[in-house]
Amino acid sequence: MAGNHNSASPAGAPRAPGLLGRLQTSRWTQVLVLIAAAAFLTLGITRGEVLEVFKKAVKICLECIGLG
Amino acid sequence: MKKTKIKDRRWMIQTLSALATNAYIPGFLSKPLSIYTGQLKNACVPGLNCYSCPGAVGACPIGGLQAVAGGYKHDFSFYVIGTMMVFGLFLGRVICGFLCLFGFIQDLLYKIPTPKIKVPHKADRVLRYLKYLILILVILLPVVLITRTIQTPAATFKLSDPYFCKWLCPAGTLEGGIPLVSSDQHLQQTVGFLFYWKLSLLGIILLASVFIHRPFCKYLCPLGAFYGLFSKVSLWRMVLDQDKCINCGKCERACPMNVAVRKDINVPECIRCGRCKKVCPTSAIRTVYGFRERSVSDTGLPKSASTS
């Protein structure tokens, strides 16, 4: 699942990644992140968060411009 | 010749991105200036781009995150975090290097020919954690630090300020505050301590950007911190081919973000500007895009990923 170093490393080159490193660089982690992102988006949209973002974004945000 | 083209391409993309995310021309032409109120503002743009900028066509993710968490309905925005996760996975900190307007402004300021300051390594290392602390505060503060409570017979509604936008964000002052306030007499009458605070902060950050490469991105930006978390899982990655590397260290000396390229190329600090790739005498550094293949690492080219 994880990556192997496929070449000899010169002096000062990185060591082989540990478990966390292998997890971070695995394809499954990428797929999991994609699934989680899709789940978050779906949940957020169904809870009506898009409208909340929209309402804030279409009015001049006084806090953002230093007046609020 | 080819190397110059690569450099120019990044500047071109940064310019086009700045124009695309601030393409609402009527906002700049009206008197006083106004902002876009169309449907595109349902969606977040990838970079730090204040939605109160007269030209902004999308919502700022950090602003949106705080708007939802600070409202009375929800404490956490799955929609904005989900959007940021998609951006993080598909692009990661490429957004900082290529698509963020405020990053672009800092890049331009750093081009001013002055003596440059290299932040001491220890201070630099400590300061870089600041942006993660700010990211945590961006998520937590609107939930725990309630500004107003509205009591009704049916329920109690708790509201809070967008603290990052209000007290720290220089993009809001530059892109929204200055143009809107300078064009509107009514807004000018409400200018007070907060405006001057934000103006001073913006001045300090812009001045620092002349001498230090992207100080806001390195030390303060919560959006960069979030995308940095995706550096290893992002589909857009850098690969250092150890077979070709002659260990000359030119990549590390050229890196404006002070990344120890030979130790680990895909660290959260890398904004994928491609300068290491440009200076590498043996073309050992490449960009890959795509899902990872089995039995590959960042020290060798994945079999099926496309390269540029």
Word description of this protein:
The complex is a heterodimer of chains A (68) and B (308). With 68 residues, chain A is an all-alpha fold. In chain A, 51% of the residues lie in helices and 0% in strands. Chain A is built from 3 helices and no strands. The N and C termini of chain A lie far apart (51 Å). Chain B has 308 residues and is mostly helical. Chain B folds into 2 domains: 2-228, no CATH class; 234-308, Alpha-Beta Plaits. In chain B, the strands form 2 sheets. In chain B, strands 3-4-5 form a 3-stranded antiparallel beta sheet, with no helix packed on it. In chain B, strand 1 (148-151) and strand 2 form a beta hairpin. In chain B, helix 6 crosses helix 12 (193-211) and helix 10 packs across helix 12 (193-211). The longest helix of chain B has 20 residues, at 2-21. The two termini of chain B are 16 Å apart. Residues 301-308 of chain B have low confidence and may be disordered. The interface between A and B is large, with 55 and 77 residues.
